[in-house]
Amino acid sequence: MSGPRIDIIQLQKSKSGRQLTINAGVLDCDVYETVWGKPIGPLADESYATVRTRVGELISGHDVWWDISDPETPTQIRDAVETKILPFLEELRTKEQLEHALNSSGALTDPYPLPVINLAVLRHQLGDPRGAAAVLESLRGRVNDAWNTRLDAISSQLEPPTHP
Question: Which residues span the domain enclosing 64?
Fold first, then answer.
């Protein structure tokens, strides 16, 4: 089962403006629409990706930043994209692969709720509505009111239709 996807690669500048890192992700458009209640706009931001990572996680398991003034930085960034980021994105072609990546990365224990919500939506889309409901319920009490409101909206979309 697959739907429209967007591969995202973004350079992030440090607060000092002297360093760069690479963020990457795959945004599943069906998951995005369920989570946010609207279609993705003309520009996809990595922070909304269904599955996301930073290049350092793929290289060494630690954050990696490159100095903007280093003449080797463009070559090092190109090499990291070719050898780490593109293979990462290639492994995320199906909803099943996205779900596996979220499970493998520990989404259920992530303090940020979006990966957990994405996992729940994927489970529902893959035919596991009970699993999806359990994942969403695991967030209750761990998130603020704004996220609880979002959870309510998502839960209502994932509920099976009632038949008279």
Answer: 5-93
